[in-house]
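Appendix B. Chain record.
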Amino acid sequence: MAMDTAVRKFAALAAAGLIVTGTGAGVATAWASTPHGRSRAAAGSSASPSASARTTASATPSSTVTAKASASTSPSREATAVASPSPSPTPTATSGGNVPLTTKGQSQVLAASQQTAKVGAIFSSSSITPGNHHCTASVVDSPAGDLIVTAAHCLGAGPTGAVFVPGYRDGSAPNGVWHISQVVENSAWTGDGDQDDDVAFAVVAPQDGRSLETAVGGGYDLSTSGTTSATVQLTGYPSATDEPITCTGDAAAFSQTQLVIDCTAFTGGTSGSAWIAGYDADADAGSIIGVVGGYQQGGDTADVSYSIVFGSDTQALYEQALSQ
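Structure tokens predicted for this chain:
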């Protein structure tokens, strides 16, 4: 029976277009077989109005970036193997693994022992059935320890029935299921889906007198200094699988208001994945300078992702969330 279950799970992953190679937990480069529309949020999310992609960016992209975006319209689908760790058990308690740096631009599936509790999946309800997560969010440091950050197109502003599951894996919630009580978004997004405001902060309710940060070991810092060039770490949850992937890549300016990065396999479900600059794998620490979203709601191909530039508007939104 155990062998039959493993075979069926591999077949399901292959059918979904997520090919995994390696041993044990299967840390490998994962490639999606098809793009997931114009949004990285999985189908069925309780999103805000869709942002219409602008044909002209607010500043002319560099020729290098333009060529890169053009080349990505037909991404390669061949899997490239990377080093694999030893097999790891499914987490049963607070997981505070050290997300590894990867070969630049090459995503890999995280083993249970590697994934961080500061990143989790968003579900539209407290029923965390495998495969039903539609976006990714990360814990951002705050005085009350109760804030997460994601893309605005992942959640509707105001109260919501959605939940955040930090450290989610294979249907398990090792760090609890946290109700999202309030979502804060910019009026430019809620009004007309402005792609330059595709970011949201959300407040989660405490559990048994504990804050979210207490449960997961803290949050990442928030940087709103307008960073447009940095090496960053992205960790997200593709909707086709129930294990997170991670990628180390070089973020660059796509325009005055948007960032771009090449990282393979960031398909539907990875919207909201934080771009963490200065990532310290040993301490699982760094500064969030963006989230997968913005232009084309994060990108319409698996291997190229976008984010808005975090500046004064993002800082104001964060401060508004602190007051909720």
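Further analysis of this model is presented in Appendix C.
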